[in-house]
């Protein structure tokens, strides 16, 4: 098929829910990720493989608190991660109505964006650059927390390694994995902390006290539904907007690094 005809067809398909062959393969890989994560999650020894990626999700959770706090004129004092997959963001000021739900919803949104970018190699590279900026901001806010430094150094190393793999195809699947992992962990965290009430104090309980109209479980359900919508939305955005065939992505890649 002539290149002009391929481009015309891709342009006509963009904005539709018609799934291309490359997109179908990406969705299959994402489904494999979901199954693998759920299996590893429940195997005592193997679940340690997911540990650094769980910590990364916690990091995105705390970063989201801090970033929204920054947007609402808060002074960010610190971000901390702990080995038990917990975290804390300390800030002064800001608007609690926005900063409290930002952790769960922000990490879910980041996951959805990474899933969408996982449909396209060029978008994955742009996403990795944006994530690198996030990492630098987190390092500044968490400069006294050794675990955050270690996590970011390891993840930055993986991004660089996968970028340098031939055609950066590994980077695209790595970004896709981080998106799926982030969304799944965020959704599970909301259910575990807010709906099943496995913790006594949470962002939702503080938000419920602030608003004063509904119990924390209600807000947990609301945030759960929003997080699921982000998850689905990430897939749909990838299908609708990122339809360029993989072969053309490689030919037109303005961020290509010789490997």
Characterise this structure.
The chain crosses the membrane at residues 27-46, 95-119, 126-142, 148-165, 170-188, 221-242. This is Peptidase M50B-like-domain-containing protein. Pfam families: Peptidase_M50B. Keywords: Membrane, Transmembrane, Transmembrane helix. This protein has 259 residues and is mainly alpha-helical. The protein has one domain (20-241). Helix content is 71%, strand content 6%. It is built from ten helices and two strands; from the N terminus they run H-H-H-E-E-H-H-H-H-H-H-H. It has helices at residues 3-13, 21-41, 51-71, 96-117, 121-141, 146-164, 169-195, 203-211, 216-241, 246-251; strands at 75-82, 86-92. The chain has a two-stranded antiparallel sheet with strand order 1-2. Helix 3 crosses helix 4, helix 4 crosses helix 8 (203-211) and helix 7 (169-195) runs antiparallel to helix 9 (216-241). The chain is globular, with a radius of gyration of 19 Å.
